[in-house]
Write the structure tokens for this entry.
Amino acid sequence: MSLRKAIAGAAVLGGAIAAYLTVVHYSHISPICTSGGCEKVQQSSYAKVAGIPVAVLGLVAYAGVLLTAVVRGVPAALAGAVIGLAGTAFSGYLLWAQIARIHAICQWCVGNDVVIAVVAVLCVARALTEPDPPA
């Protein structure tokens, strides 16, 4: 399987998680959760940035990564890597917030953390190996 296909698949999976959490947010329903902390995390002050739900930001990021995966060339590979690394850093911050500030763990958020980390690794690998398209 090519790196671009793997990136696209991971971006679709991450996008599905982000889409679910976006629907949960705007529908004002509780997420399906076995960890017991999802609702507390989703209703915390960390669930929004400048009034925008972090799930929406995730959805936009995964759409951006998916777009870079369908485009050949080093610039698209680098853009995917930047998005993936930024998403991983932000997810790390949110994981810290769950543990240290909110004192609750959202299984959907942790799932997203794993997916965005995989996306970042794949995108960096692609950026390091992507050939320039023929002129």
User: Anything to note?
Assistant: The chain has one domain: 3-129.
